[in-house]
Design a protein that fits this description.
With about 250 residues, this protein is an alpha/beta fold. It has 2 domains: about 25-55 and about 65-80 and about 160-248, 3-Layer(aba) Sandwich (Rossmann fold), CATH 3.40.50.300; about 90-155, no CATH class. The chain has helices at about 40-45, 70-75, 95-105, 110-125, 140-150, 170-185, 200-205, 220-225, 230-235, and strands at about 1-10, 15-25, 30-35, 55-60, 65, 80-85, 160, 190-195, 205-210, 215-220. The longest helix is centred in the C-terminal third of the chain and has 18 residues, at about 170-185.
Length: about 250
């Protein structure tokens, strides 16, 4: 579904991604962990074509994203859902208008079909009957779920999650983690998550990648990464206080 080969990106003298290589498998949840500033968000921006790498390939659904023209990127993005870190809802619009926004602007669906799809995805995220609520009437957790409903509205085969539990208390973190796991089981989509939430990762991930200083230190199945003996991993996962990582 997504193949990454020797992906590198620098901003001036700062190397943010360094020869990143991995395969993200279809129908699985893959979580990229790492401290702040390690290249996680930069990687997501490459997947959707907002940034171009200095070197390397990034194949999404058989297309090499860095080589695509604007019109081709536009078409590819219709197959990608993005759940933004803070929801990124339009605060002047109600829930229905937020969730239906991609359908109204990027499809020719009839109004009754749009209404049915919005109701369907709101049901999926546990917010049935909230179409007419304003976003200001929603809790932080509800806003996150509305953002997720919008990301799912066009039934994309790939959904990207940018720090889905940032800013939430532990109870809401667990709720969102369980929701992502439930949706993955029910929908069978490819979920790509960037996070610093270690406990949540073990709950939801099939595959885990650990990024540090732009390098993909480890990539593999959940259990293999979780119980790895690498000193970097032990320090990051809190199994040892001392190690080579700085600022963890």
């Amino acid at each position: 579904m997504v193949q990454v080969r020797n992906l590198s990106k620098s901003f001036g003298s700062l190397r943010v991604l360094k020869d990143m290589t991995c395969d993200i498998l279809a129908g699985h949840t893959t979580v990229f962990l790492g401290p702040s500033g390690t290249g996680k968000s930069v990687f997501i921006k490459h997947i959707v074509g907002l940034l171009k790498p200095d070197a390397g390939e990034l194949m999404v659904m058989g297309r090499n994203v860095p080589t695509l023209k604007e019109g081709e990127l536009y078409q590819l993005r219709k197959h990608l859902g993005l759940a933004f870190q803070l929801g990124a809802l339009f605060d002047s619009l109600n829930v229905f208008d937020n969730v239906s926004f991609p359908l109204v602007h990027h499809t020719n669906m009839r109004r009754k079909n749009v209404e049915a799809r919005v109701a369907e995805v709101l049901e999926l995220v546990g917010l049935p009957g909230t179409e007419h609520k304003l976003t200001t009437e929603l809790s932080t957790g509800e806003q996150k779920r509305v953002g997720l409903a919008r990301a799912l509205s066009m039934n994309p085969p790939i959904v990207l999650f940018d720090e889905p539990t940032t800013g939430l208390d532990p109870i809401l973190c667990t709720t969102i983690d369980e929701l992502i796991l439930k949706l993955k089981t029910e929908l069978g989509r490819t979920f790509i998550v960037i996070s610093h939430d270690i406990e949540g990762t073990w709950k939801m991930a099939d595959y885990v990648g650990v990024l540090y200083q732009g390098k993909l230190l480890k990539y593999g199945k959940n259990e293999d990464v979780r119980h790895g003996d690498d000193i970097f991993l032990k320090q990051f996962f809190g199994r040892t206080e001392n190690g080579p990582m700085i600022g963890v």
